[in-house]
Amino acid sequence: MPASLFSHFLPLAYWVHDLSPFLIRFSPNIGIRYYGLAYVLGFVAAAWLLSRYAAAGRSLLPAAKIGDFIIAIVFGVMLGGRIGYFLFYQWDTLRADPVALLRVWEGGMASHGGFLGVALALLWFARSKKIPFFHLADLIATTTPVGLLFGRIANFINGELWGKVTTVPWAVIFPGSAAPGTPVESILPRHPSQLYEAGLEGLVLLAFIQWRMWRSDVIRTKPGRLAGEFLVAYALVRIVGEVFREPDSGLSLLFGLSRGTFYSLFLILAGIFFIVRPSQPLPTAK
Fold first, then answer.
1. What pTM did the predictor assign?
2. Where are the domains of the chain?
3. How far apart are CA 110 and CA 228, in angstroms?
4. How much is the pLDDT for 256?
5. Tell me: the pLDDT tens digits for 201-237?
6. Could you say which residues of the chain have pLDDT below 50?
7. Bridge-partner residues for 165, per DSSP?
């Protein structure tokens, strides 16, 4: 079939993404966005899981301190994710326009930056509340996939971070992947890589880490190991997802790798350190 004829039938063969990023819209740029709702749901789910751990005697974090812990994590995620986005992906933009860091309504968060922000929040909370850092790292690692799941679904709803061009039957036409004004029949279909990542980073990791949490005593006998396993597993599934994901526009590869893959290598190293470091069993939770 000639390419022009193939392009003509694309709208009939593939779904054209037309979802609104707003659940409720008050003005062109103001409203309740699915992306923001994803963060709220992720933190609420994390608080619920932490309360379950405390009730089951698997956590040294008292139920009364879960609220304070979540607040610390919120700051870590939001500040780390936002600053990391510009440091890792938009450094030139930040240098030219530092105020861009504050224009949060334009989007821009980086999961790798979020991990660094959470690590700093954990260090602060562990020191101030006298709770072992590696235990807190294990706890938050078991809740993180829920937030990743909601976040990737929100990425899909936003029509951002789309995949590479493909002809698989479930491909999606993302209007934002082409220059403004491009006729939809000329836009090529792409992998819905956001949903691949939602399944891998969200559902698969959640099933694995919850299985480890409830079916073993590793959180008490080897503090830090669960967090290490999560970091390694996340990095591996992120690398798989990068195979299908279109590299960010205007960003060069690092050593021949996409930036997401390159930064994930450091998570693997950190995860291995968490796993192999000597550790002492924790006291039984009261």
1. 0.90
2. 3-276
3. 20
4. 80
5. 999 999 999 999 999 999 999 999 999 999 999 999 9
6. 1-3, 5-11
7. 190
